[in-house]
Amino acid sequence: MSGRRFAVAVASAGLLAGTLCVPASAVASTPSAGPVYWYQIVAQHSGKCLDVAHAKTGHAANVIQGTCAPRGTGYNQQWRIVDSGASGTYIRLIARHSGLCLDVAHASTKHGANVLQGVCGGPAAYNQQWRIEYMKIDGTARIRARHSGSCLDVANARLEHGANVIQATCGGPGSGNNQLWRFRQVGVSWE
């Protein structure tokens, strides 16, 4: 299936299932010549961005929430949405500064497992595959890990810069807006 047809299929399925909050043109099935859309992923409860700590570029660098950088800067807070290659309902989130994937450490299925960036694996790397679940008319969404069914979560609903990002039971005790995220387009590049 061509990249464009795939994106339309994902958009259609997402609208029917209520799980898509980004334009179909932003979901790339495979890297190819054309525009690449970059997003800040903003925590609803704090207004802070999903951030690879200290802009580290290596495997296993920690992911936190950080004060959102001005548009055009802070590449460690910019993420590309790419089809996972395994299913039309799952995507990968790739950090612009490193080219690495958002990843649940050690493929853990436990509540509270750490989220980091890791070398992007193949279609079987379910701990790097995510489903965007549109939650509210305001454009917020949960981001659910395929391997565990858990949601991307700012630990303990902390508000400060540097608060750790984990996976946690979706809608579990203490969860709320710290599991809701908004995608804000901040850049376009060309491949």
Automatic annotation (TrEMBL):
Which organism is this protein's natural source? Answer: Nonomuraea soli
Q: Is-annotated flag, keyword Lyase? A: no
Pfam families in the cross-refs? RicinB_lectin_2 (PF14200)
Looking at the keywords, is Signal present? yes
Q: Which domain of life is it from?
A: Bacteria
What are the alphabetically sorted keywords of the record?
Signal
Signal peptide location? 1-26
Residues forming the Ricin B lectin domain are: 35-184
Give the protein name, as stated in the record: Ricin B lectin domain-containing protein
